[in-house]
Here is the input.
Amino acid sequence: MIIAYIVAMQAEAQPFIDNFGVQEVPGFFSPLPCRLYHARMGSATDLYVVLNGKVHGSDLIGCESASVATQAAIQKLHPDLVINSGTCGAFSSNGADIAKVYLGNAVMFHDRRVPGDDEWGTQALGNYPVWDGTKALAEKLNLPMGKVTTGSSLDMQPCDLQMIKENNGELKDMEGAAVAFVCSLYNVPVLLVKSVTDLCDNSAETYDEFKRNLAMASEELCKVNIRIVEELKG
Ligand code: SAH
Here is the structure.
């Protein structure tokens, strides 16, 4: 089985990279900035971790970079499963807490406001399929599930919140729907694993809260990813 993780930030992936001892394959995606790490697990599983990469010293977060990385990973690695692992904002009113890790049971965009006919509205929102083994995996590993909604901003404008609420969104990120969109084009299943760095319904400043909790959320993300890989490789 070929598993390809797509991760936006080095800090989100580092505990996982260290734990699995995946080795960097320098220049694999050149000229793209995406970075590849690889480990052979047992006799039948190839584990790849793909980072979107950096420009001017900063991790490339967001939909465009996630789409490029996912497309490159699918074309060059031919994964059986893509896993988008990262952090998100969530709502304490839904029972979320800092560093709680969820599997995404649905995924859509929340900031693409395209008036017109139904087809355009539907296309803008996305609502892409997630891996059909997600629910069974969540039950087996006793993990909560939630709907991921993706936008291009860390902050949340009132119209974003309205869209999220109307569509029962729970996990707000900046990559999930972009990764799932590319996977849907190639018919590759996608699993979303999201760890909460900040709460969208408290009074804290989002970026401060994100920075404060990034390390802890990434550690918890790593623990869950270890269990997921153990389960998938059988
Ligand atoms: N690169 C910046 C901050 C990135 S924050 C820095 O460290 O200085 C945004 C990243 O965290 C994105 O990859 C996104 O997927 C995730 N994220 C965490 N909380 C989020 C929220 N409330 N809304 C949107 N994305 C969030």
Summary: The helical segments are 10-20, 63-77, 118-125, 134-141, 158-166, 176-186, 206-233. The pocket of S-adenosyl-L-homocysteine is lined by residues 8-9, 58-59, 61, 86-89, 154, 172-175, 197-198, 200, 206, 210 (CB under 6 Å). Residues 2-233 form a domain with the Rossmann fold fold (CATH 3.40.50.1580). Residues 206-233 form the longest helix (28 residues).
